[in-house]
Amino acid sequence: MVTVTQTLFLGFMALLIAERLLELVLSKRNAARAFARGGVETGQGHYRFMVVFHTLFLFACVAEVFALHRPFWGAWSVAALVGAVVAQGLRYWAIGTLGDRWNSRIIVVPGLAPVTGGPYRFLRHPNYVAVVLELLCVPLIHGAWVTAVVFTVGNAVLLFVRIRAEEAALGAMYSEAFADRPRFIPEVRRG
């Protein structure tokens, strides 16, 4: 028998999947624009793995909740939901700040200065912070702790490869613009 919280979790996951499909459409449009401006793509080797990884994540969240009968943990689940919503807010702040320069691939248009506004004022990789938070929190909304652990660890490995490829592709102009900014956790400056 499906519980109310499982039904609500399925609804949340359906919204998340719809959001990802819209992001793919936006990414494809923005990638085409970047290529039209002379953009050069790198990191294709890990990109396919990344797509499969994130697709499996969505299915694993639902599968663990239903196959292993994971419970709704009350306040802990609500905290995970809040974390997932915060992650979405950060993701869309980063996407909105990048505008038509955002896509899910690594495409660099030569000569464009790095975007340093929005959340990029505080961090080099706010979108990846959102992804880390999401992969941890979304499964925990309904107690899918195995999915949270497995995909958080897998994502750490994926991000290690991805960030190195992205920063190498962005080059010296990026390194100079972000030399004083942390990658993931904002620094609290006094004074």
From TrEMBL:
The chain crosses the membrane at residues 6-26, 47-67, 73-94, 106-123, 143-161. GO terms for cellular component: membrane. Coiled coil: none annotated. It is found in: Membrane. It comes from the Bacteria. InterPro entries: ICMT_MeTrfase, Metal_cation-efflux_comp. Signal peptide: none annotated. It is a multi-pass membrane protein. The keyword Zinc does not apply. Keywords: Membrane, Transmembrane, Transmembrane helix. It holds the Pfam family ICMT. One of its GO terms (molecular function) is protein C-terminal S-isoprenylcysteine carboxyl O-methyltransferase activity. PANTHER family: BLL3993 PROTEIN. This is Isoprenylcysteine carboxyl methyltransferase.
